């Protein structure tokens, strides 16, 4: 299975996936209890150091994945400036950056198969009641994998538009991007059916 884990080996790659996901949950909850911009800026700095420690390639890949945050950061910043709560806006932005950066850090240092194994373990009680959890495991894996894939295809679609038109890309890209996403979904569905689909035989 294709994974989002970084090929740059770090010490965190060998840590148990369950431990990393549990720590991520606790850290994310803890971020919402931090009100001081100074402490949050320290958290952001510490996360950046964690990205930089494995080397330039790891740092570049990590920061590239965080580019998706910029539109949300701009929207939040503008709104907070409009309502005159700049300090609170800074807190919100740093919380958002920290939470997403930590989640991305876990994704980069954890194989997708290990994450699915954690989900399988967590949903074990559901199987005792006869509920199939295979669909949930596959859905989580597909979301983790397909979001960056579609983002990349959306960027290439935008580049194609700019290469062929003088006008800026706009809502006109929504339809081709939707068709592209549906086509990908169709291919994924065919691949799943070719492998037996989500049948009860997948349960262990």
Kindly describe this structure.
- The chain is mostly helical and about 200 residues long.
- Helices cover about 70% and strands about 0% of the residues.
- The chain has helices at about 15-30, 35-50, 55-65, 70-80, 85-110, 110-120, 125-130, 135-165, 175-195.
- The longest helix has about 30 residues, at about 135-165.
- The two termini are about 20 Å apart.
- Its main location: membrane.
- InterPro entries: ABC/ECF_trnsptr_transmembrane.
- It comes from Thioclava nitratireducens.
- It holds the Pfam family CbiQ.
- This is ABC transporter permease.
* Alpha-carbon Rg, integer: 20 Å
Q: Return the average pLDDT rounded to an integer.
A: 84
Q: Unreliable stretches, pLDDT < 50, 5 or more residues?
A: none
Number of strands: 0
Main sheet record = none
State the shape.
globular
Strand content: under 5%
Q: Which class do the helix and strand fractions yield? A: mainly alpha
Order of helix and strand elements from N to C terminus: HHHHHHHHH
Q: How far is it from the N-terminal to the C-terminal residue, by CA?
A: 19 Å
Helix count, per DSSP? 9
Q: How much helix, percentage-wise, in residues?
A: over 70%
